[in-house]
Amino acid sequence: MFIVAGTLYVDPAERDAYLASCVEAVRAARAAPGCVDFAVSPDLVEPGRINVYERWESEEELLAFRGAGPADEQSAAIRGAEVHRFLISSVEAP
After folding, report:
1. Which of these, 84, 77, 91, 94, lies nearest to 3 by C-alpha position?
2. Among candidates 79, 75, 94, 91, which has minimal Cα distance to 36?
3. What distance in Å separates the CA atoms of residue 58 and residue 76, rounded to the nearest whole number?
4. Any idea what DSSP says for residue 67?
5. Please, is 15 exposed, middle or buried when counting C-beta atoms within 10 Å of its C-beta (0-12, 13-18, 19+)?
6. Nearest to 6 by CA among 31, 28, 47, 39
7. Half-sphere exposure for 70 (CA within 13 Å, toward CB)
């Protein structure tokens, strides 16, 4: 299992528009083979911060969905990012 998680930073005044531009990608990801969860959401404390979380059954399915990556307009709006991919070897109940 793979988890992709981290933060994106955009202009605080543009965050709502950026998130709106992600709606179709979130829907598509959640419908994609191997997607367990996919979320892009505003941070409750920092106005320009966006939290990202993806969980995939395999790297192949993650890469098949990812394709060329975000649209040019989305990439241009990102002022900073710290996103990492994690390989999970086991999952347990809390």
Report:
1. 84
2. 91
3. 29
4. T
5. buried
6. 39
7. 15
Report how far residue 4's alpha carbon sits from residue 52's, in angstroms, rounded to the nearest whole number.
8
In angstroms, the Cα distances linking 11 to 8, 66, 76, 89 are 10, 24, 11, 36
The pTM for the full model equals: 0.86
pLDDT tens column, 6-17: 999 999 999 999
Q: Which residue has the tokens 């191997």?
A: 34
Beta strands in 1-94 (DSSP E): 2-9, 35-42, 49-56, 80-87
Is residue 2 within 8 A of residue 88, CB to CB? The reply is yes
